[in-house]
UniProtKB/TrEMBL annotation:
<keyword id="KW-0084">Basement membrane</keyword>
<feature type="disulfide bond">
    <location>
        <begin position="164"/>
        <end position="274"/>
    </location>
</feature>
<comment type="function">
    <text>Appears to regulate cell growth through interactions with the extracellular matrix and cytokines. Binds calcium and copper, several types of collagen, albumin, thrombospondin, PDGF and cell membranes. There are two calcium binding sites; an acidic domain that binds 5 to 8 Ca(2+) with a low affinity and an EF-hand loop that binds a Ca(2+) ion with a high affinity.</text>
</comment>
<dbReference type="Pfam" id="PF09289">
    <property type="entry name" value="FOLN"/>
</dbReference>
<protein>
    <recommendedName>
        <fullName>SPARC</fullName>
    </recommendedName>
</protein>
<dbReference type="InterPro" id="IPR036058">
    <property type="entry name" value="Kazal_dom_sf"/>
</dbReference>
<keyword id="KW-0732">Signal</keyword>
<feature type="signal peptide">
    <location>
        <begin position="1"/>
        <end position="17"/>
    </location>
</feature>
<dbReference type="GO" id="GO:0050840">
    <property type="term" value="F:extracellular matrix binding"/>
</dbReference>
<dbReference type="InterPro" id="IPR001999">
    <property type="entry name" value="Osteonectin_CS"/>
</dbReference>
<feature type="disulfide bond">
    <location>
        <begin position="282"/>
        <end position="298"/>
    </location>
</feature>
<feature type="disulfide bond">
    <location>
        <begin position="121"/>
        <end position="158"/>
    </location>
</feature>
<dbReference type="GO" id="GO:0005615">
    <property type="term" value="C:extracellular space"/>
</dbReference>
<dbReference type="Pfam" id="PF10591">
    <property type="entry name" value="SPARC_Ca_bdg"/>
</dbReference>
<keyword id="KW-0186">Copper</keyword>
<keyword id="KW-0964">Secreted</keyword>
<dbReference type="InterPro" id="IPR011992">
    <property type="entry name" value="EF-hand-dom_pair"/>
</dbReference>
Length: 312
């Protein structure tokens, strides 16, 4: 028993004699062990890509916060003559107060005529290179007796026109009415693609065109023309009004001047040599202008049938 106790104490004393292991050293040992067991990880390199402007909705150009440059637009003053009307033979100029005014055009500034068809004849029996030359010349004569009497007689160079006899003058309105009616009918027949007539005009002419009683074009006797006018009077009302509207253009004022009648003095017009004398006698008030009422009466249209709404 004593031997056992002695052996126990010897073992205990040896155990107490072994120095304790430091905690820090143990931690180091464990760490080194981990390093040896696992290879060191490579250091991760983070690359920051440069974003283009607009890729990030929050990102804005620095220029957006810069003050905008003030743009100064050059203001071009409107030409006062732009919408200022001057009659034939005059041009617009600006006075010292920048106000538009009409002055006579110098005939030498008119464009050169390119053909004989541009020539016009004045009632002074003189051929002018163009209507521009004629009106510019007439303007320079304003205030004079010669200028007051000078008018454009007809289109084309001056030529010999025989005098209009009394019997021819009496036939003129009959032949002219018939000619106007046939002109409109011909235009209606060819108007599918040419737009020669307005829609309102087409409706009027269509009634004439489709009327079986219409007298066809031809060199008819004055007796037949007189009879047709009596029987088919309504067919002639619109053609007479239509021709007035075609001539009343410079300006559109409800009156025909001597100059506006010039297109009727052409070889295509029947009895052209009676045109001047006929319309001179139509001017019943001698004011040198022909009103619609005077025009219609010259062609035998009754007063109750004269309608400005037909001048379309």
């Amino acid at each position: 028993m004593r031997v056992f106790l002695l052996l126990f104490f010897v073992l205990v004393s040896k155990t107490l004699a072994v120095p304790p292991i430091d905690v820090q050293e143990e931690a180091v040992f464990d760490t080194d062990q981990v390093v040896l067991d696992e290879p060191a990880a490579e250091e991760e390199v983070v690359v920051v890509e440069e974003q283009t402007v607009g890729a990030n909705p929050v990102q804005v150009e620095t220029d957006d916060f810069e003050e905008p440059e003030e743009t100064v637009e050059e203001v071009v003053a409107e030409n006062p003559c732009l919408n200022h009307y001057c009659k034939h033979g005059k041009v617009c100029e600006v006075d010292e107060n920048n106000m538009p005014m009409c002055v006579c055009q110098d005939p030498s500034t008119c464009p050169t005529a390119t053909g004989e068809f541009e020539h016009v004849c004045g009632n002074d029996n003189k051929t002018y290179d163009s209507s521009c030359h004629f009106f510019a010349t007439k303007c320079t004569l304003e205030g004079t007796k010669k200028g007051h009497k000078l008018h454009l007689d007809y289109i084309g160079p001056c030529k010999y026109i025989p005098p209009c006899m009394d019997n021819e003058l009496s036939e003129f309105p009959f032949r002219m009415r018939d000619w106007l009616k046939n002109v409109l009918v011909t235009m209606f027949e060819r108007d599918e693609e040419n737009n020669l007539l307005t829609e309102k005009q087409k409706l009027r002419v269509k009634k004439i065109f489709e009327n079986e009683k219409r007298l066809s074009a031809g060199d008819h006797s004055i007796d037949l023309l007189t009879l047709d006018f009596v029987k088919n009077y309504n067919m002639y009302i619109f053609p007479v009004h239509w021709q007035f509207g075609q001539l009343d253009q410079h300006p559109v004022d409800g009156y025909l001047s001597h100059t506006e009648l010039a297109p009727l003095r052409a070889p295509l017009i029947p009895m052209e040599h009676c045109t001047t004398r006929f319309f001179t006698e139509c001017d019943t008030d001698s004011d040198r202008y022909i009103a619609l009422e005077e025009w219609a009466a010259c062609f035998g249209i009754k007063e109750q049938d004269i309608d400005k709404n037909l001048v379309i």
